[in-house]
Design a protein that fits this description.
The structure holds three protein chains of three kinds. By secondary structure, chain A is an all-alpha fold. In chain C, the strands form four sheets. Chain C has a four-stranded mixed β-sheet with strand order 8-1-10-9. The chains are: A mainly alpha, B mainly alpha, C alpha+beta. At the A-C interface, helix 5 and helix 6 of A face strand 2, helix 2, helix 3, strand 6 and strand 11 of C.
Chain lengths: ~425, ~70, ~250
């Protein structure tokens, strides 16, 4: 049986690289080059070029911006698989138009998370080899390395690949420079009823398999911190659930932003209706409320029952050295919450306001990640070494910026070679 | 046939994960000696990752396995 | 098999830092790295103040948080009780550093050729030392140790790997005591087999009141402090601000 549907030309501007696209790509690649240069400098000179220093007598922070953004990137990856799971398991057909862009967000975010670990390692080459040879399940890094990078990324790729086969088959019928790529992706898919049924079945089971992976993968990252008995501010049973929820907040928030940009640029007003955004907004609201609850519980516990190191650290966050960043993060989170509550209460959703809350929660996410990683090292020493200090250098900023640019470039490139929303069914050769 | 193969892959994948995690990689527990720093079988972590991948590859196999000619 | 440990007599320590110096020379650690550190505390309000000193090597814990979290098993516990760092396996993730509650880990932030405690490559100095083996060339640091034959003595301070106090494993395996112990002018530091009831360390632990640092974390350190002192609490402040710079 042959495919009944036929496309006359590639949809969504595939394969048409406009001057504006080239300009964007140029800027992004220039930023990637800056990041690569910074990394090269770091490879040659060592981590001395960063603002990181030893704990203890050197009174610095051994983990800084790289780890902060590793957690952030893994967190953002929450969006894609959650969408897939919601659509498949809860039958939320309304969210279907954002499913592929969310999955792509997941894949690229995980790629960046894997990459940002490399500059953090003093011996990156050994890191790659030794983890495969010696990795110990007892180390919380084992989960990060096997479940997040290998499991989560691989599962997302599989889901993404299988989910795209129908559209690839449709696009492969249009003669273009991309035909070979589309044909390869389709891998003989002909959209027979048997194939459709099979795909529905696999994606259902994949969604079921991925949900526990989602929770464990985001939790392992929380365990990296939550299991450290010697670090006030880290050692907490709430760390892992907090990571899962914060991942959701930042992931859904960024998805709102990405979806709005694509809607504008690719003129997807028909596909991405305000109802889709409203759904994401409500989900975001729910997650923010849970996160704020966790924050309150944690604050109360550490202020009421914490030993003096814990209290000192909390003071540094609330009124001390880190208070500016703390209150900016909390303020963004609360502002985003108020914006969302208002829209839900009035039942009137505005896409710009939703995007604003998406941006705000991401500012908060980065801030809160930083506040988890750094203060416990500079202000949480159990022996009286004195207060430490950390400020990132241009090398760290450049590498992070380069990675963001790389991610954006990959996204922009993908949007030009593959339909980012599902190609609608066409009848009789006409759209 | 298709279903059997996929289920088999999933089961093998999980089995490989469990075996490599608990029996082949470095032992769990308080690291009180050098034996806690080495995997009991070299490259056990790689086996674990392969196990994870095998589970999800089952989906690809299930969908992409070419259909047999109708007999 | 011997299970080594250290006993530090706080009543004897005068905070002279000869142990810090000895460690620097023996292991030729990079500038800013202190495998041994001496806390110099003052407590109380004037005029009722007290000054006291507390050397702080690696605690070589029996339940080492650093070895637990090491993703590749570069940090491990030896059968003789030493917590060792295999600098040929370490990937430089610094997880051990953030996991350690005692702050004893030192990362090699840059290549080791410059800014050593003693820059022995200085031509003027080389002429004067007249061919003596400088510490940075100490071949013992490069060697393999223990039945497992791993590189745990610090080596040439390779860029991008973690280091810490080794209890001078290269000396201990020769039957010598660590450099800090051997060089303490007041015999405040003692090293020996904690399993042997007749060893000097066991005897000291029997005779004097003792404590260990952060015992509440159940890391079970193998470094014991004896004497009339106590573990530093919230009221202990360092006399001078210590900040290693590189």
């Amino acid at each position: 049986m042959a495919v009944q549907e036929r496309l006359e030309r590639l949809p969504y501007g595939l394969g048409r690289f406009t001057p504006a696209w080239y300009a964007l790509a140029g800027v992004l690649l220039a930023l990637v080059a800056l990041g690569a240069y910074a990394y090269l400098r770091q490879l040659i000179e060592g981590l001395i070029v960063t603002g990181l220093r030893d704990l203890g007598t050197m009174r610095g922070a051994a983990w800084g911006l790289y780890i902060t953004f590793d957690i952030y990137f893994v967190g953002v990856s929450f969006a894609g698989i959650t969408m897939a799971a919601l659509i498949r398991l809860l039958n939320l057909e309304a969210l279907k138009p954002v499913s592929r862009m969310a999955e792509l967000l997941t894949i690229i975010a995980l790629l960046l998370a894997g990459l940002v670990i490399l500059p953090d390692l003093g011996q990156p080459l050994r890191g790659i080899v030794n983890l495969f040879v010696y990795a110990r399940p007892q180390s919380p890094f084992f989960g990060t390395f096997t479940l997040v990078i290998a499991g989560y990324l691989f599962a997302s790729l599989v889901y993404f690949y299988l989910d795209g086969r129908r559209d690839a088959a449709l696009c492969a019928q249009v003669p273009s420079r991309l035909q070979g790529f589309h044909r390869l992706w389709a891998a003989g898919y002909r959209d027979t009823p048997a194939e459709r049924q099979r795909h529905a079945r696999t994606s259902f089971w994949l969604a079921i398999a991925i949900v526990p992976l989602l929770v464990t993968a985001h939790s392992t990252l929380g365990f990296v911190f939550g299991l450290q008995v010697g670090r006030p501010g880290w050692f907490s049973a709430l760390q892992a659930p907090g990571f899962v929820v914060m991942a959701g907040v930042s992931g859904i928030g960024l998805l709102l932003v990405v979806a709005a940009i694509l809607r504008r640029v690719l003129r997807l007003q028909e596909e991405l209706t305000p109802a889709v955004f409203a759904w994401l907004g409500r989900l975001l609201l729910l997650l923010i409320v849970i996160y704020l609850y966790f924050t309150a519980v944690e604050l109360l516990t550490s202020l009421y029952a914490g030993h003096h190191h814990e209290v000192a650290l909390t003071r540094a966050l609330l009124v001390g050295e880190y208070s500016a960043l703390y209150w900016v993060s909390m303020g963004s989170l609360v502002l985003a919450l108020l914006l969302l509550v208002g829209q839900v209460a009035l039942r009137a959703y505005s896409i710009p306001l939703l995007v604003l809350s998406g941006l705000l929660v991401n500012v908060a996410a980065i801030g809160k990640r930083y506040l988890i990683v750094v203060p416990s090292q500079t202000h949480g020493a159990l022996l009286p070494y004195g207060v430490g200090w950390y400020a990132p250098t241009w090398v760290e900023y450049s590498i992070i910026l380069g990675l963001f640019a790389l991610g954006t470039f990959l996204y922009a490139l993908f949007v030009k070679v593959f339909p980012i929303v599902e190609v609608p069914a066409v009848q009789g050769g006409k759209r | 046939m298709r279903t059997v193969l996929a289920i088999l892959m999933v089961l093998c994948g999980f089995a490989l994960q469990a075996v490599s995690y608990f029996f082949l990689a470095a032992p769990l527990g308080i690291p009180s000696g050098p034996e806690y720093s080495n995997p009991r079988l070299p490259l056990a972590p790689l086996l674990f990752i392969l196990g994870v991948m095998l589970v999800f590859l089952a989906a690809v196999v299930y969908e992409l396995l070419p259909e047999r000619e109708q007999a | 098999m011997a299970r080594y440990g250290m006993v530090i007599d706080l009543d004897r320590c005068t905070g002279c830092r000869a142990c810090v110096e000895a460690c620097k020379v023996e292991n030729n650690t990079p500038r800013g790295s202190f495998w041994m550190h001496v806390f110099r505390f003052e407590e109380g309000e004037f005029p009722n103040t007290r000054v006291w000193f507390m050397p702080r090597p690696c605690m070589h814990c029996d339940n080492p948080p650093c070895a637990k979290v090491c993703p590749v098993g570069a940090r491990y516990k030896r059968d003789d009780g030493l917590v060792a760092t295999d600098w040929k396996r370490c990937i430089g993730c610094r997880y051990c550093e953030v996991a350690c509650p005692y702050g004893v880990n030192c990362f090699n932030w840059k290549s080791p050729e410059k800014n050593y405690y003693l820059d022995w490559q200085d031509p003027e100095l080389t002429a004067r030392t007249n061919g003596a083996i400088p510490p940075y060339k100490n071949p013992d640091l490069e060697g393999r140790y223990g039945p497992e034959q791993r590189h745990v003595a610090g080596g040439g301070h390779l860029k991008g790997v973690m280091e810490k106090c080794t209890f001078c494993v290269h000396r201990v395996e020769k039957g010598l005591s660590p450099a800090c112990v051997a060089n303490c002018p007041l015999f405040a530091l003692h090293f020996g087999d904690l399993d042997d009831p007749d060893s000097n360390v066991s005897r000291l632990l029997r005779e004097k009141r003792s404590f260990r640092l952060l015992e509440e974390l159940d890391t079970q350190p193998r470094v014991h402090y004896v004497g009339s002192g106590h573990a530093p609490g919230a009221e202990a402040r360092q006399i001078e601000h210590v900040k290693g710079r590189i």
